[in-house]
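Cross-check.
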Amino acid sequence: MKECMFYDIDGDSVRCRLCPHGCRIGEGQSGLCRSRKNIGGKLYSLAYGHPCAIADDPIEKKPLAEWHPGTRCLSIACTGCNLRCPNCQNSAISQASPSERERYDCSPDDIVALAKEYRLPTIAYTYTEPLTWFEYLYDTATKAHEAGINNVLVSAGFVEEEPLRMLAPFLDAANIDLKSFSDDTYRHFNHARLAPVLRTLLILKEMGVHLEITMLLIPGINTDAGMQQKMFRWMKENGLADCPLHITRFFPAYKMMDACPTPLDEMRKAEMMAKAEGIKHVYLGNV
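Predicted model, tokenized:
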């Protein structure tokens, strides 16, 4: 484990400043993400150096459609997430603490060496929420950058501005999951908020990171045409019309095993609306 970078001492507790939840964490307790713990009045990342998943993936799986197509990447993940999506397809690792899952012992140097050994030009931080294991992500990304290896962030984007701006210079590409365009939906369905995610998108664009956006289309949750239209118009108005948009199909998972897959007609309607509103590069996924 490693002492965390963004927190304040708050009486007998510590207050995490990594994401907008701002968890106030008592002695011996962990934050909502389960991977940042108060030990002796200091906040530590329990996930540091302990990835629970390491894989060789095509870059298109992230998904990235318009960044180094046809190449492969070293995907790594640690346990932890600061959202509570009932449809999570990686809930076994995202909704667990580091001690609850088998894990490797891999320093940032080990991860970079692994990418070199297998001649993989990119490291992708993915599967769970990489920003909850920020210190490991940051240390690995900086060493990868020094070694000429690309860094890709796959994230829900629910993070504070200061750590994001610290990390962005070492990111080459990112895919951010824009789960809906409703703050109420974010609050009740994802246990998060919309505004910080929109801020993340604008900061990554501003700082020159290649950006692609994913919207997982879930029937009854974010299939409202009015909501979608607002999202597509916001993208265009904020200079993201050229940003590749992945509209992906929902399949039953986690706490939504009784739900139905997204009808293909809903996928096509969303695709047509996005293009009509000026989004230039739209991809349908999981179809």
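Helices lie at 91-94, 108-117, 134-146, 161-167, 183-190, 194-206, 225-237, 264-276. DSSP finds eight helices and 14 strands in the chain. Passed to J.P. for a second look.
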